[in-house]
Input
Amino acid sequence: MFRKNTKHQQPALISAASELPEKQLKRLESSWAGTFYKEFFSRIDEQSFAVLYSEKDSRPNVPVNVLVGLEALKAGFGWSDQELYENYCYNLQVRYALGYDRLGDGDFEIRSLYYFRERLSKYNADKGINLLEKAFEQITDAQIMDLKIRSGMQRMDSTQIASNIVSASRLQWLVASVQRVERILSEADRVRLTSKTAPDIIPTASKAKKPCGNICRRSGKPFTRYCRI
Output
């Protein structure tokens, strides 16, 4: 079930950020994290992503603006999914950029990010609409208007991010499928399949080469290198 995230608009009275010394708090607010929160995160239109979720009463979704923000940060910093998740959990700057000022708030499993990518990819494939690209265009248009930029500024490019999401989702589907098959196999099936597939994998490499039989002109001895059959 879709639900908009508005909690970030009401900062907690007691938080990791508020407990920082005044000088450090100002540095946090003026860092890239503060700029990202103000100029990107706060401009994300979550409602446009509501089509990805069921209208039936169910557990609320992980905030869409957090998920979209994480994808932007991953692309910007070049993080792996694991690095992204660890920074989300323990990096105060990253959490501040995503509207959280306490480390314990907004906890979710990394698989929620994978599910979000799958929904984006499926909707794009079914409807031909790239919701992530549209969100980036809307954000950049709002920035241009607020900053009163007159030049032909290009919109923020989300093509690479969307492409990465599609590729990652396909790989995740493949890995998940293999893992599901492995889980449902009985011990007897595992032994039987291992015995059938092992000869095709291990011995092949050893049988693929043989001594080449060539003689060295200088020493008159056979070469020790091997040639492929």
